[in-house]
Design brief:
The chain contains 6 helices and no strands. With 118 residues, the chain is mainly alpha-helical.
Length: 118
């Protein structure tokens, strides 16, 4: 894989992780407890949710372009990087706790990605 392809796969993973943060922020303002149709309508107008949907739409275009350049078997492991980034971003930006087993798992994921990328 070329350096540009690896960089774009990392950008894709960062985007997926940021999208998950946007969905979390949307969930914190949605669904008052008793879900109703108005809650779903409010979600559709929630700026965090709308941002996540647009981000994922753009990332889908990037993903399709990347798959034209890179075999799926080489590109898809980078999706796992989004798991690691989501863990880190949620700890830093949302003040969520990271358990030791999560950090160990994240290290294993990163090790696997390095094996695939080399």
């Amino acid at each position: 894989m070329a350096a540009l392809q690896i960089c774009l796969l990392i950008v894709y993973a960062i985007g997926i992780a940021l999208g998950q943060l946007l969905f979390k922020l949307a969930s914190m303002r949605a669904f008052s407890g008793n879900s109703s149709f108005t809650d779903f309508f409010a979600l559709a107008l929630n700026p965090w949710f709308v941002s996540a949907v647009f981000l994922y739409g753009g990332l889908s275009v990037l993903w399709i372009w990347l798959l034209k350049q890179v075999p799926l078997s080489s590109a898809y492991p980078f999706v796992a990087l989004s798991f690691v980034l989501t863990l880190v971003f949620s700890a830093v930006l949302l003040d969520e706790r990271m358990a030791a087993r999560q950090l160990i798992g994240a290290g294993l994921i990163v090790g696997g990605i390095l094996m695939v990328a080399s």
